[in-house]
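Team,

Forwarding the record for the chain on the shared tracking sheet. I've put the sequence and predicted structure together so nobody has to dig through attachments.
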Amino acid sequence: MKNPFVILIVTFFLIIILHQKAPEDLRYPSTDRGTVTDTYFDTTIADPYRWLEDDYARETKTWVTKQNAFTSSYMRKIPFRRKIEKRLTEIWNYPSQGAPFKKGDKYYFYKNDGLQNQAVLYVQDSPTSESEIFMDPNQFSNDGTIALGGIYFSQNHKYMGYSINVAGSDWQEFFVKDLTTGELLSDHLTWIKFSGMSWQGNGFYYKKYPTPDENEELSATNENAKVYYHRLGTPQEADELIYYEADNPKLSPSISVSDDGRFMFLYRSSGTYGNMLSFRDTKVSDERWTPLVDDLTSNCYIMDNIEDQLIAQTDRNAPFKKIVRIDTNNPDESHWITLIEGTKDQVLSSVNLVGGKFFAHFTQDVTSVWKVYDLDGTYLYNVDLPGKGIVGGFGGDKDQMITWYTFNNSVNPPTLYQYNIQLNISTVYHESEAKFNRDNYVLKQEFYPSKDGTMIPMFIAHKKGLKMDGKRPTLLYAYGGFNIPIKPYFSKANMILLENDGVYVIANLRGGSEYGQNWHEAGMLQKKQNVFDDFIAAADYLKESGITSSDYLAIRGGSNGGLLIGAVLNQQPDICKVAFPEVGVMDMLRYEKFTIGYAWAVEYGSVKEQEHFDNLVKYSPLHAIKDGVEYPSVLVYTADHDDRVVPAHSFKYAAALQNGQGGPNPILIRIGQRTGHGAGKPTKKIIAEYAEKWAFMFYEMGLNF
């Protein structure tokens, strides 16, 4: 007779086994290994996947098709992926509205009804009047992959220029609309990149690059930028060349014009940090440029002018930024007058001149503080904000007495406020309709020590009262570079994690601007390892504090953040269960050879210099992969029209990681179709991508949904 107790025990363990993720037969699509090598100084480096850099080659296209098919087949095994996508669609489906802005005698704002692929531009006579659709980018294409970029109004408000981006590419096309008749003019400009329209008279200034060779539109180096003036009604071929330095092909010039049309400003840069600045007074017949800054050691931008006085924002001899007044009749730097200055505790972020006052945005421990000043720099008062979070806005004209701002944080959906400047009073203008009960969640900021003892801030969001048992599914996100701050913004996508007893964490690594230029410099060039140490320490802190463990931790980063994830995985492969390196800079030895990559050398250093090569090769995600090591489950993401960080980075990295993986965890890559680095991505594609990421994360952690 069978023992009922033994049967019960066996049945119990069978149930446990069946609820665990079954082993997968991971037979990756084959990837040929070539014999290409490069020699850097005295070191020879193999590059077996060099052929994947040719994204137009038949072999590369075949590889992409097979990798996408393999990833799709793996995702189909996840039983709850469609359920997640359905829930995300429900979460996304509510109206969201941007702040109104005044141009001429009209007010404009952007709004998305919920699931529209692109936000729609509306117009109204006053902030309280009925609105109507002014421009609907969803009409640009059937699949929503053509996005409206910038909009630029002429000084007389007769015309509005606008740019579009196709399939996520950085390449722009310009068009012009007559605001009186509503008609689209014949003007159509192409092969424009990283440019706005700066109107002056019956035309505008813009930056153009040479037309690339066929099949190199998304990969060729973007050099020899030129500034042109386009006169309405004339063909682009007739545009007047305004500025070009033939002996410096990597120099990027641009021209802007003051709102009153009096001053022209010439900016010149060769990297992502530092610019030269000159100006020209159109009231003076002399057309020579007067220099204000003639080196690349700082950032300096003109934000406005008051008659012949320029108002500029700069970090020149000001690591926490400052606002200065420059007399155009005596413009030497020694005569600049400081009006507002940031401090170690409150870093100046930006300043707007609205309603006859300066509205200055400071960040204090990565959250917003807004202060109001007279035009002579005298402090008046702080704006009373709704809470601790991220506040953006306070834009408008010099004489505008009503402005708007948006408040949000990781557990507070954006709320739009109207602000009366004369009365210093805020009122709710548009309440978020997000199906999210903020009272059920908590956002806290904590500080943890990095490897060298530096205290690093992080934001942690989760349900109130959530038991921290070391098994909370946790997503750790960071960036750490390019003087860019990572703030605790509200994310619709993250609601999935939070409502399913998960934890969302942002770590404010060195390399960003959270604490000024010193914080930035502590995470760049030869100090880049600080960024990786900061991130690893963040993961350690989450585990030591009992929130999660390596089996329930996912890590994510995009672009420079993708580099971060790749580098960290090589340095500590057991750091997490799941990793998402997205649109990442993964080949640190060849990043300068594609599109605008050379501009990043001020951040990373160039392989043309040995000290930088020695540093780059140590952490380059592609080159530091350890064959035979067990890596976690990795889902690499890139896109076929990413001409910011070309997909070859991720192609080569995924191929190398699949080849080197020494454990059972999957190494997958998803190559998005008709998408780019991220901007302008249609809602439908965003939802589908997040559904895939969340499903992969939960599945690999052995969780259900």
